[in-house]
Automatic annotation (TrEMBL):
Protein family: Belongs to the DNA mismatch repair MutS family.
Chain sites annotated for binding ATP: G639, P640, N641, M642, A643, G644, K645, S646
Function: This protein is involved in the repair of mismatches in DNA. It is possible that it carries out the mismatch recognition step. This protein has a weak ATPase activity.
Protein name, UniProt field: DNA mismatch repair protein MutS
GO BP, one annotated term: mismatch repair
Disordered: annotated span: 826-859
Record field: compositional bias (Basic and acidic residues): 849-859
High-level lineage: Bacteria, Pseudomonadati, Verrucomicrobiota, Opitutia, Puniceicoccales
One MF annotation (Gene Ontology) recorded for this entry: mismatched DNA binding
Keywords: ATP-binding, DNA damage, DNA repair, DNA-binding, Nucleotide-binding
Short name of any one Pfam family annotated for the protein: MutS_IV
Keyword match DNA-binding: yes
Length: 859
């Protein structure tokens, strides 16, 4: 029989904690100066962190030094796992098991530590519930205190915001993912949700945690209110269940209430410009198709100098507006800085010294405090008077009575008493760790000064002791030293031992020397330890007092931080507008989109970069558009490959979006009738990983557009139908256009780029369709791209010329020309001449318009 193994009390303690943890969690168990992992955790941890796996008696172990823990924890969170921290919560005593407790569970969505967050991006934890009542959503950023909910009967209307917030972690009711899988067959919403959940850390929680009543109660409790009317939210709001689940999870992981939540707000899809997930990807709003920030719209229009500014810009892009007064406030604010470049530049350079108050405050409220961040509050407050004065300079240049910047200035609080206190209390240079001590300025607290002078006196006493003893004993290299194990001692080298006086008490022998203490030194040592302990305790007390003083002003500080972020976005936008020659768009509620000399914000910057800042042959060619839902609703755009069709239709969508976040636009002028949605079907975004063929994706996206577009929407469609056979594709493209045109007075504004020449005939039949083309010049059988959008259809497609430009071998080009000629002459008997295969598609025939019925016939 196997001998029963004895478990040590410490390991017993370990197992007790381990069994309470959620799945996918590594337990870091504090043992002295190390966090240790045991058993399976050690194996996983060693692999994820690249550290050594060791074996002690019969279990595996892996450890990390406690002072370097943060960077290791960051690595674990990055792979989507959680980390539980079990700390020693009392001073260890020899022979006694030290008390330990779980102090924190760090998860990808709830971490608030500085070096585990991307300072430029919001960091959300989201909860979703999708049932018969509709789609509910709540999200929270624990690092800033932002807390929002949303409910919609149509999930399509909330997918845009869900995908845009891109949460680090997702909470779902137990069994949800299995349920989604069951319903996913040919249902794009479920497919999108499954893909969304699979691409981030997801935790399924018991259904009771999503209960609406208890959620509502929990939200009111945490915000300290008896109803939610003050936030414009009904107590029975369907998404309060999700909000409750978030709070429950936050409490579990922080091991205490989140203390930095002071408000909750509702996101309404009705008040926002909605951009469905496919369009967000296609238009490369938050990242390029290669998955990078570089090449995205957000990168092109980010001129922020502070992290909080960059995060606000992201928030505005997450929920673009339809509210014209709010958009005008932003556009007007940019104008103020645009007109005063000197002041704007000055403001921007001052903003560089502003610290991230939103996140610092959130950490302070949740017990993560350090002297350097406290100093950050001081340094930021010190900038406020100067910032206010600079804004006033800008604002006073405007003779109007009310200035768009007034509201912003009023939200910047100088807090003179707090500023003075922090100035007086803190040293200039501050440590990042509380334990390091030495952060309170001399003269702030007489008590601390007295304790510190004792320590200084003691150091003098020790120095005096060394020189005095050297003289008294005649031992020239006698030293007074200190180490952690023995405290203070006198060290004498072996060669001088004969000179050691009688009152020295031998303590330790080393290879070359003997160590001694004396009665006096022992007494002094006690005094020194006592004084150091006292001064450290006193310093921490004072630190807590200062934290209290900051937290008392948390509401004003929060408001100031938010205003600073706005200021940063406006200044950044004004600088971009100047640098790239943007103009202020005029927003209205008509059905018109009128852009004069528009440019693509990202391609324009890329071209300039490629030409190392020089204009000329690499300069972007501007193009305008005038399109309205009730007049010329559909623009059919033809033109050769590479001519610039996709770029043009995308730039129209991007300019509209930019105007609806309040940013100036790359155009000579723009009048934008506010749109409710932007849809796109652009490019071939293969989705094989999600089990869909290219054509299936194209049709899913098209179906979504046809089902959800309204007269106030903007649609850009690029080569619909090209993923299938010519006739099928043409027929689909044709009927899509007919459907969008509708028999009514107006329809969604649509830009339709195509290579199907046949469709250009549709203008004879559909009175709100106009033909446009991107012009090229022909020169000796070659083509030159001029990138200009002109009225009228393109006469031919020039595919073969473009293929030659791309470097296709000459024999292939010559043979292609031969085949094309035969096909165009309606001769279906193309001679087979190896190695070029016979074309499989039937030759294309011309479209005829059946004159008498006003109907189109294909054959
Ligand atoms: N207005 C413009 N000014 C300068 N360069 C442009 C402009 N429009 C497009 N380009 C350049 O031309 C390239 C091709 O443009 P785009 O992809 O829009 O062509 P396309 O007509 O849609 O081609 P295809 O039909 O093959 O998809 C772009 O990558 C861009 O670099």
């Amino acid at each position: 029989m196997a001998r029963e193994k004895k478990i040590t009390p410490m390991m017993q303690q370990y197992y007790e904690v381990r069994k309470t943890l959620p799945a996918n969690t590594l337990l870091l168990f504090r043992l002295g100066d190390f966090y240790e992992m045991f058993h399976e955790d050690a194996e996983v941890g060693a692999q994820v962190l690249g550290i050594t796996l060791t074996k002690r008696s019969d279990y595996k172990m892996a450890g990390i030094p406690f002072h370097a823990a943060e960077q290791y924890i960051g690595k674990v969170l990055k792979v989507g796992m959680k980390v539980a921290i079990c700390e020693q919560v009392e001073t260890p005593q020899a022979g006694k098991l030290v008390k330990r407790a779980l102090t924190r569970i760090l998860t990808p969505g709830t971490t608030i530590e500085d070096n585990q967050l991307d300072s430029q991006r919001n960091h959300y934890l989201a909860a979703i519930e999708y049932d018969k009542a509709g789609f509910s959503l709540a999200w929270i950023d624990l690092s800033t205190g932002e807390f929002r909910i949303a409910h919609d009967s149509k999930p399509d209307d909330l997918l845009p915001v869900l995908v845009s917030i891109d949460p680090a972690e997702l909470l779902l009711i137990e069994g949800t993912q299995e349920n989604w899988q069951k319903h996913s067959h040919n249902n794009p919403v479920f497919e999108e949700l499954i893909h969304f959940a699979n691409s981030r850390s997801t935790s399924e929680q018991p259904a009771f945690q999503f209960d609406c009543d208890s959620g509502s109660q929990a939200v009111m409790e945490i915000l300290g209110v008896i109803n939610l009317e003050g936030f414009g939210i009904d107590k029975t709001h369907d998404a309060l269940g999700c909000a409750g689940a978030l709070l429950h999870y936050a409490r579990e992981t922080l091991r205490s209430e989140p203390k930095n939540l002071s408000s909750i707000s509702e996101y309404s899809s009705k008040a926002s410009l909605l951009i469905d997930p496919a369009t967000l990807r296609n238009l490369e709003i938050f990242k390029s198709t290669r998955g990078l920030r570089e090449g995205s719209l957000i990168e092109a229009i980010n001129g922020c100098k502070t992290a909080a500014g960059a995060r606000l810009l992201e928030q505005w892009l997450i929920a673009p507006e339809r509210d014209i007064p709010e958009l005008n406030r932003r556009l007007d604010s940019v104008e103020q800085f645009f007109g005063n470049p000197m002041a704007a530049t000055e403001l921007q350079s001052t903003l560089k010294s502003v610290r991230d108050i939103q996140r610092i405050l959130s950490r302070m409220q949740n017990r993560l405090r350090n002297p350097r961040e406290l100093g950050g509050v001081r340094d930021t407050l010190a900038q406020i008077p100067e910032l206010k004065a600079s804004i006033q300079e800008v604002a006073s240049a405007d003779p109007a009575d009310t200035n768009p910047l007034d509201g912003l200035t009023n939200r910047l609080h100088e807090l003179p008493a707090l500023t003075e206190l922090l100035d007086r209390a803190l040293k200039e240079e501050l440590p990042s760790k509380l334990d390091d001590g030495g952060y309170i300025a001399t003269g702030y607290d007489p008590e601390l000064d007295r304790m510190l002078s004792l320590t200084t006196d003691n150091k003098v006493w020790l120095a005096d002791l060394e020189s005095g003893e050297r003289e008294r004993t005649g031992i020239k290299n006698l030293k007074v030293k200190y180490n952690g194990a023995f405290g203070y001692f006198i060290e004498v080298t072996k060669s001088n031992l004969s000179l050691v006086p009688e009152n020295y008490i031998r303590k330790q022998t080393t290879v070359n020397a003997e160590r001694f203490i004396t009665e006096d030194l022992k007494v002094k040592e006690k005094e020194i330890f006592h004084a150091e302990e006292n001064s450290k305790r006193r310093e921490e007390e004072l630190f807590l007092g200062l934290i209290e003083a900051v937290l008392e002003e948390s509401a004003a500080l929060k408001e100031t931080a938010a205003a600073l972020a706005e200021l940063d976005v406006f200044c950044g936008w004004s600088e971009i507008a100047r640098r790239w020659d943007y103009s202020k768009p005029e927003l209205n509620d008509t059905d018109l989109l009128d852009i004069d000399q528009g440019r693509h914000p990202v391609v324009e910057q890329m071209l300039r970069k490629d030409s190392q800042g020089l204009a000329g042959s690499h300069a972007f060619v501007p193009n305008g558009i005038n399109i309205s839902a009730s007049n010329n609703q559909i623009h059919l755009i033809t033109g050769p490959n590479m001519a610039g069709k996709s770029t043009f239709i995308r730039q129209v969508a991007l300019i509209t979006l930019m105007a609806q976040v309040g940013c100036w636009v790359p155009a000579a002028s723009a009048k934008i009738g506010v749109v409710d949605r932007i849809f796109s079907r652009v490019g071939a975004s293969d989705d094989l990983a999600r089990g869909n063929s290219t054509f299936m994706v194209e049709m899913n996206e098209t179906a979504n557009i046809l089902n959800n577009a309204t007269e106030s929407s903007l649609i850009i469609l690029d080569e619909i139908g090209r993923g299938t056979s010519t006739y099928d594709g043409l027929s689909i493209a044709w009927s899509v256009i007919e459907h969008l045109h509708r028999d009514t007075e107006a329809g969604p504004k649509t830009l339709f780029a195509t290579h199907y020449q046949e469709l250009t005939q549709l203008d004879k039949h559909l009175n709100r369709l106009e033909n446009y083309s991107v012009a090229v010049k022909e020169w000796n059988d070659d083509i030159v791209f001029v990138r200009q959008v002109v009225k009228g259809a393109a006469d031919r497609s020039y595919g073969i010329q473009v293929a030659r430009l791309a470097g296709l071998p000459t024999p292939v080009i010559d043979r292609a020309k031969e085949i094309l000629e035969k096909l165009e002459s309606d001769d279906s008997t193309v001679t087979v001449s190896s190695p070029t295969p016979t074309p499989v598609a039937k030759p294309r025939k011309k479209i005829k318009v059946a004159k008498d019925e006003n109907q189109l016939g294909l054959f």
